[in-house]
Design brief:
Elements lengths: L2 H16 L3 E4 L5 E6 L16 E5 L2 E6 L10 E8 L1 E8 L13 E6 H4 L7 E3 L7
Parallel strand pairs: 2-5, 6-8
Antiparallel strand pairs: 1-2, 3-4, 4-7, 5-6
Length: 132
């Protein structure tokens, strides 16, 4: 193989491995994945999950999501892209296969520290937010 082809092949193989991924432990003992930076792929991304609400409360970001009774913060990966204004993207990585009736959804919390955010930082949530 030519050196250029080897370099391109190595970059293609290593790109997913080099994407920044930091795992924090929440106060509840669940592992929370926080991806720093954005990942680019050629595959078409799944649509972003609609959130029921987003608010900041006491040094934490609180996100309300649909649940069948077993949804936890550790079921979501949070991508944090900082380009002046921080962009947050929430991706459900584990389906909630429980069968409980939770018509109002559940609130999940991530501290500013877990997200790598400082107080007063401008933040944009990329997920759609449904009106109540």
């Amino acid at each position: 193989m030519a050196p250029v082809i080897k370099l391109v092949a190595a970059a293609a193989i290593l790109s997913p491995l080099l994407a920044g991924c930091v795992v924090y432990e929440s106060t509840g003992g669940d592992e929370i994945a926080v991806r720093l930076g954005s990942q680019t792929t050629t595959a078409q991304a799944a649509p972003l999950e609609s959130l029921r609400g987003v608010r900041f409360d006491g040094g934490a970001l609180v996100v309300k999501v649909d649940s069948n009774g077993c949804t936890q913060a550790s079921d979501f990966a949070v991508e944090v892209a900082d380009g002046g204004t921080v962009e947050l993207t929430f991706t459900r990585e584990n389906q909630d296969l429980c069968k409980a009736l939770v018509p109002d959804g559940v609130e999940l919390r991530w501290t500013y520290e877990e997200l790598g955010l400082g107080a007063g930082k401008a933040v944009v949530v990329r997920n759609p937010v449904r009106l109540p």
